[in-house]
Amino acid sequence: MEKNILGLPVEASQSIVNELNVLLSNYQVYYQNLRGIHWNIKGKRFFDLHVKFEELYNDSQLKIDLIAERVLTLGGIPLHTFEDYLEKSTISVGKNIFKDEKAIQLIVSSLSHLLIIERKVFDSATAINDEGTSSMLGDFISEQEKTIWMMQSWLEEGI
Predict the structure, then answer these.
(1) What is the mean pLDDT of residues 88-107?
(2) What own/partner pairs with CB < 8 Å and gap ≥ 24 does 98-103 have?
């Protein structure tokens, strides 16, 4: 079995690169959704949500960079065109979202979708002892689970 400079199997690493590029594509759509709801949110919760959405898109921007750099570390080329992102992404595109609850529902749905992809990549990386990818995704997963819990709690307001 041929190994790369990191000591990981070449063929399996390429498969992880492909999975990471799918994750990258989905993150790019999620990021753009966050930008849109940040810009367009209206209503009495504007001030709180505007800041929260900016926090979330800044965080996703950092994660996008980490994913792309991990692809490069594994010897791949990160996708970098909107055409590629839209082709590979399966996350819902949010368009013209102005209402607070609809925005939060989109975030929860998007993060839940990202978790499915991340767990798949995590499992693939763990299977070949790719600690770098596994560790990165483990951090993403735990943060997103907490964010989902907080957003779900927000949606249950007044119940």
Answers:
(1) 96
(2) 98/40, 98/41, 98/42, 98/43, 99/42, 99/43, 100/41, 100/43, 100/45, 100/49, 101/155, 103/37, 103/41, 103/49, 103/53
